Amino acid sequence: MKRITLLGATGSIGLRTLDLVASFPEELQIAGLAARGSNVDLIADLCRKYSPRAVALLDAGAVDRLARQLPAPRPELLSGPEGLAALARDADADVVVSALVGGAGLLPTMAAIQAGRTVALANKETLVMAGSLMTAAARRRGVTLLPVDSEHSAVFQCLAGHNRGDIHRILLTASGGPFRETPKAKLAAVTVEDALRHPTWKMGAKITIDSATLMNKGLEIIEARWLFDVAPDQVQVVVHPQSIVHSMVEYIDGSVIAQLGVADMGVPILYALTYPERRPTPAARLDLTRVGRLTFQEPDTDKFPCLRLARAALEQGGAAPVVLNAANEIAVAAFLDRRIGFIDIADVIERALGGSPAGELRSIDECVAIDAEVRRRVQQLVDVRTGGHRA
User: Which structural domain, as residue segments, surrounds residue 53?
Assistant: First the structure.
């Protein structure tokens, strides 16, 4: 029996993970659940169904509401960032699935690594913010980082059985989002509803907006650099609207190995949970004769500057990716709240990057401090731009 601690239980990745656990009751079991706490009713239902021994909620006030819904004997209830970290560190689990959205996943993911637990990583911001620190800690503790993102899982699978030193480049595929064919001049008029209509994947609001700006792909470039220990210029992006090829690895002899499949997050999630083995799933099967053409093109970094900004932050190094991530989270939230326009997201991020502190990150505490300061500064920038009003 493989025991799982799930961070981000109520998000799209978390709920799909739980469905898979329910599909393999003789192999998979939930040891602990963590969430932000915005949907206490759902968390209570999950506790009754999966019987975790411990639950951690980021919102401390939600813990009392959850306790009132759960009869004794109830799971151990933890709260706040410290509670999430304690759950990841102390719950008796074989795998910690890190699926919290944004910087909230940083401390509990590091706690899991420091405890020597295998981490199935669906929180790309963790490696974006502190890739050098996370991977160094994983090496010291002998921890395996298993990618859950469809693109990084694809690369991971393409690397199986091959020498990492033979990598020429990694090719991350992008659907291009809902505005792939939209002229740049029309992006200023994009609405929240427009941006949330992703052509391929059904995801949470934040990651869907990141996909629309291509920041999601920029974050994936940074994540891939650390996850696979390659140079920044060895990670490239190609737009592939069909979303059939999930990513590719080109080797030094010119061979390119690709991972293909239907767009179904259940496949990479289950692979991470059962690695190094595979399990049969009811997922739809790929029929290339029905797919027809597979097309690829260069991303337009003029129309989608977030991709350029992410690569610049990676090349600058140090705290720049922390600034990039924090500014993006605040800007996306402001867009979703209709306080700024779609094209303002990149502008806010670029302004924030102009004030990036120099030097290498020395600790997770320093990373957290910089993240908090950037969020405060960028929130002020948004407030000044909008005068406190919605766009």
Answer: 2-147
